[in-house]
Specification:
- Two copies of one chain form a homodimer.
- The two termini of chain A are about 25 Å apart.
- The first copy, chain A, contains nine helices and 14 strands.
- In chain A, about 55% of the residues are buried.
- Chain A has two domains: about 240 residues, Aspartate Aminotransferase, domain 2 (3-Layer(aba) Sandwich), CATH 3.40.640.10; about 100 residues, Alpha-Beta Complex (Aspartate Aminotransferase, domain 1), CATH 3.90.1150.10.
- In chain A, α4 links the parallel β3 and β4.
- The first copy, chain A, is globular.
- With about 350 residues, chain A is an alpha/beta fold.
- Chains A and B meet through α1, α3, α4 and α6 of A and α1, α3, α4 and α6 of B.
- Chains A, B: It is found in: Cytoplasm.
- Chains A, B: InterPro entries: Aminotrans_V_dom, Aminotrans_V_PyrdxlP_BS, Pser_aminoTfrase, PyrdxlP-dep_Trfase, PyrdxlP-dep_Trfase_major, PyrdxlP-dep_Trfase_small.
């Protein structure tokens, strides 16, 4: 029986992607070789990474606008470090909206002065701060577009005169934005891009080369650009599966189309959370994430019944993050509306039973 | 028809590993979920990484000897940086045996004084320097056990009183060594361990915590040990396939058994290189690598015929690295003896024809 996979990441990808990805492990492109045993310098793989890099820019509307897309190692957590290494000369402005922002601030602190322009820590990161000001003498402004753990999402981004850097790990490719407002976007692959093991960096070349420190080669965006994302052996399989997933999104019609589906899914679930008297949402309504819905049972005694019902309905991965508790339903691009319908039906049934 | 895959890396893995790895992309452990869509914090995956870490120590004979095995991001190239970040306070001693050593030296140079104890650059890295001395007041000694590009391999390691760090990317798990002579071993997975995308670090805990600088979290071995190799989302699939491959090696009888096969393969090919008047080996005989045999045609006019014959025999990946030219046949653990027999037969046939 089909699982309804609400895992916060690594997360569901389209079944067609799994099928093709499975086949390539046995025989890639009818080469008689597994995708896992070919050289990363082979024509076949070079064309994979080139197509993936080009497709990223196309999907984000950033073609021919001075950006480069890179598939790097190390997860978004490595970017906390790389961003500072490459861009931080004296001070930088960070918006603190949760665990990932806080970690980004911690790592950047080793390289210069970090000004926290605002934080929602006072209310356990359940909202997105507004009306903060960013000092335009900072080297850059950094924010996190979606907060997986707390289920909050930035709906608006400030207008700044300095480079804007954004960790979009958990909502890239899920909604339309004017991506050209950003100068550097990074994202661990394991949500809407692909499996765990590679990290996307989209960077405007014009912002690079301005710090005085020496940058380790592997972390140096300019070197990675020069080497066409192959300074060292890339995570071949993770890049390949990301390409399959990007192709899937492209064939659907791109971000515009998937955003409509994502809106429907989120609307359906949040309506239930608000209408059902047994549940309450965690995040401030105006800041609710379209990707990760966080919610709690008002009566903890119902927990074991609800968990049991979810299990019976083949619902996977809705336990909340340990730092928030309760439930978290992640509704990434590949999650079908029908899975949300099943979850809502179980919530309904609980109400009837209780 | 079966390909004979001599690729220098990413490289051949056992067919049984590809089969199981392919199946897990569709359905992992009969969970109804793909290995690509499960949480890295799920019981199923935690048990994968735990088993892989334990198996590494068992295969290397390092159980209960104060070592930890970590599966990290970023390839061996990131370790060039991490080693220096974690261990280099004032100066370190490096043996320069080729491209990878040179890169390791370049990155470490950002963190302290690097003393090159010896180099074989004078003869295009075609041999391993001997009779060098290592200053025991250095913070550590660093060497590269096998040089993929040049086809040389260290047969003996110096006896030093300081921590010995070794990049074993291209020959780990291929031959018996007293691994307890090393204090830190690292290896990109994509040769004898698994597919590209994860990196093994085996570190003796006692050598850590001795530098005064602050270390970025992701590069800090102590933090990675504390977080049980899950400071951030690991490269789930690459770790899983590495486990399958380590299990395969274990079921064969471990390093001792595979070493015998590797010796046979190397002996067969090097004999042919020495006997066949059309070929000459690149590396000094006493330093020849059991993993990567580098050789040239004496008469370059035979190149297109030989290439054609190799292609017809389904031989893949024997072109030499661009910096050496000629041919390179990589004979990693999973390459069967029969593949080497096919290559030797083609070399023989060329001699008969020429």
């Amino acid at each position: 029986m089909k699982k309804h996979n609400f895992s916060a990441g690594p997360c569901i990808l389209p079944h067609s992607v799994f099928k093709e990805a499975s086949q390539a492990v046995l025989d890639f492109n009818n080469s008689g070789l597994s995708i896992l045993e070919i050289s990363h310098r082979s024509k076949d793989f070079v064309s994979v990474i080139e197509e993936a890099r080009a497709l990223v820019l196309e999907l984000l509307g950033l073609k021919n606008k001075g950006y480069q897309a890179l598939f790097l190692h190390g997860g978004a957590s490595t970017q906390f470090l790389s961003v500072a290494y490459n861009l931080l000369e004296k001070k930088a402005a960070y918006l603190n909206t949760g665990t990932w922002s806080s970690k980004a601030i911690k790592e950047a602190n080793l390289f210069g002065e970090i000004v926290e322009v605002a934080s929602s820590k006072d209310k356990h990161f359940s909202y997105i701060p507004k009306n903060y000001s960013v000092d335009n003498s900072s080297d850059y402004f950094h924010c996190t577009s979606n907060n997986t753990i707390y289920g909050t999402q930035m709906k608006e981004f400030p207008s700044v005169e300095i480079p804007m850097v954004c960790d979009m790990s958990s909502d890239i490719f899920s909604r339309q934005l004017d991506f050209s407002n950003f100068d550097l976007i990074y994202a661990g692959a394991q949500k809407n891009m692909g499996p765990a093991g590679t990290t996307l960096v989209v960077v405007k070349k014009a912002i690079l080369g301005k710090v005085s420190r020496e940058i380790p080669s592997l972390l140096d965006y300019q070197i990675q650009i020069e080497k066409e994302s192959m300074f060292n052996t890339p995570a071949v399989y993770a890049v390949y599966v990301s390409l399959l997933n990007l192709r899937w999104l492209h064939s659907l019609g791109g971000i515009k189309e998937i955003e409509e589906v994502n809106e429907k899914k989120a609307q359906l679930l949040y309506s239930e959370i608000d209408i059902n008297p047994l549940f309450k949402g965690f995040a401030a309504k105006e800041d609710r994430s379209m990707m990760n819905a966080t919610f709690n049972l008002k009566d903890n005694n119902l927990e074991s019944v609800f968990n049991q019902m979810c299990q019976e309905a083949n619902i996977n991965g809705i336990h909340g993050h340990r730092s928030v508790g309760g439930y978290r339903a992640s509704m990434y691009n590949a999650l079908p509306l029908s899975s949300v319908e099943v979850l809502v039906e179980v919530m309904n049934e609980l109400e009837r039973k209780a």
